[in-house]
Amino acid sequence: MRRRERSVCARLAAFAAAAMLAHAFGVPGMLGCTPALAASNKVRITQLSDVAFGSITNLSVDAIRSESVCLFADTSTNGYNITASGNGSAGAFELSSGLQSLPYEVQWSGSSGQSSGVQLAPNTPLTGQFSSATQQTCASGPATSASLVLVLRSLALSSATAGTYNGTLTLVVGPE
Q1: Which of 131, 137, 144, 157 is the most exposed place for a label (fewest CB within 10 A)?
Q2: Residues 12 and 95: beta-carbon distance below 8 Å
Q3: What letter does residue 35 receive in the DSSP assignment?
Q4: Mean pLDDT of the chain
Q5: Would you call 154 helix, strand, or coil by DSSP?
């Protein structure tokens, strides 16, 4: 039996908080990622990279980072589904620093260049997506075909304890 999905890690930034008057947050680095092998070429996600939030000094606004990726689906309808899971309990999307945690949101858009999308729930497939990619790595046709959006809400940021926060996000893409 051939595996019909592709699992890819999207690395989420680590947070380092400085004990400053402004209670500023910075992002020093990223986590490693080892994508799982897939036997099927029905779906493929490429052009994922580290997501860095940089220095966050205004804790009264949401911190949002998005990246355009290539999502290719070789099905009769170019359809796919995407499932995200974090490294929190039951796949929750959260960064951790020791015993402290910092929740984040994951959004997905079937169009590239977006800064918002459909909010994903951990381990729950978002179905009914369609890819505009015409080649597996977007080497020809559109350069990217979807957007991954990560959101740190101001409420969570303003109540976070200083520390270095780390997390990993795993994306699983399946054909439809």
Answers
A1: 137
A2: yes
A3: P
A4: 77
A5: helix
